[in-house]
Amino acid sequence: MTQYLSRRAATITPYVAGEQPAGSDIIKLNTNENPYPPSPKALCVLQAFAGERLRLYPRPDGGSLRSAAAKVYGLSEDHIFCGNGSDEVLGLAFQAFFDGDVAFPDITYSFYPVWAELYGISYKLVPLNADFTIPVDDMRGNGVVFANPNAPTGIALGRSDIERILQNNSDHVVIVDEAYASFGAGTVAPLIPQYPNLLIVSTMSKSHALAGLRVAFAIGQPHLIEGLMRIKDSFNSYPLDMVAQETAAAALLDEPYCAAMSEKIIATRENTIKRLADIGFRVLPSSANFVFASHPQASAAALKEYLADNGIYVRHFNKPRIYDYLRITIGTDAQMDKLI
Ligand SMILES: Cc1ncc(COP(=O)(O)O)c(C=O)c1O
Q1: 40-254: CATH, from 3.40.640.10, 3.40.50.1820, 3.30.450.20, 1.10.10.10
Q2: CATH 3.90.1150.10: which residues of the chain?
Q3: Which of 86, 225, 281, 310 has a CB 3.0–4.6 Å from the CB of 216, allowing a cystine?
């Protein structure tokens, strides 16, 4: 019944998140979560949290998380904006920086067109090359956004290509969504002092195994952070609760733990790519914690169903160009054995 809905709510096509099936026996390889637990130091902070403090509002700027991110990236705090998952930070960034004609790849994170439509921002889709790489010189608009590595392909652009996109769009903000940067591609944060139009969005959901806490941040020069603050303070001043701020800060500062988990995932990924290739899959080169694979004889939709019937959840996108592919999150070695 749409009679009570605004025109916007009635006509929008919302993003469809991967399933969160219940059950302890299932192998969940469909939403790029980390198979390992969060940092033990973060879990200590969480357990020691004194609940009576919750009568107060949290710090509106992310507090200790903002300081931790500034320290880890070697920048001052006015370069950091903290939010409730990168979905929120990206949504705020669309409102802060784009008026229309924003460019992003035709195959990328499928939330980008949803925000554009929700906020009435026109967009142009830049078709990926036949090998699913981003055509660097075609990435031009009144604003640009892409994921590096891209999702769901897993393919990363190098730093010089990203600089080219920044230079080709010097009058507009270029958002680099680094959700999966810790699994090989690395961050382009060292470019921030040079590029006033660069905004990086980084999440703690994947590399820090904190998808359930909903924490992310953006990194950019202070005038961009100011723009995000203006939108945040016109919508929800306190996007991150105290527990999230303090737990995430401890996880972020535990750099050796995060690096060791990412190394393990990268080793499992490379092994999985070989094993999938051995049984006839075409697998794109991945710099992420997932692989994108197709098989010449088996339909991806049927494989997804077959795997789900056997308790293994992977992601299939019913979309042109990628209909034959499955996106498979890298789990533990034992989970990948079962998948193969
Ligand atoms: C490319 C990309 N960006 C952003 C997100 C959102 O992450 P979160 O809201 O958990 O920070 C995802 C989640 O899968 C993603 O794949």
Answers
A1: 3.40.640.10
A2: 27-38+256-339
A3: 86
Atom of ligand 1 nearest to the CA of 152: 16
The pLDDT tens digits of the residues spanning 15-47 come to 988 878 887 789 999 999 999 999 999 999 999
Model's pTM, two decimal places? 0.97
Residue nearest to atom 7 of ligand 1 (CA): 86
Q: How far is the CA of 247 from the centre of ligand 1 (A)?
A: 19
Pocket of ligand 1 (CB under 6 A): 32, 85-87, 109, 147, 151, 177, 179, 203, 205, 211, 216
- What 8-state DSSP symbol labels residue 130? T
To test the pocket of ligand 1, the residue of 88, 107, 109, 215 to mutate (highest count of ligand atoms within 8 Å of its CB) is 109
Instruction: List, as one string, the DSSP characters of 24-91.
Output: SS-EE-SS---SSPPPHHHHHHHHH--GGGGGSPPPTT-THHHHHHHHHHTS-GGGEEEESSHHHHHH
| CATH class belonging to 27-38+256-339 | alpha beta
- Triad 267, 213, 187: Cα angle to 5°: 45
CA dihedral 255, 256, 259, 264 (to 10 degrees): -150
What's the CA-to-centroid distance between 86 and ligand 1, angstroms? 6
**CATH 3.40.640.10 domain extents, the chain:** 40-254
Which of 29, 177, 240, 286 gets mutated to test ligand 1 (max ligand atoms within 8 A of its CB)? 177
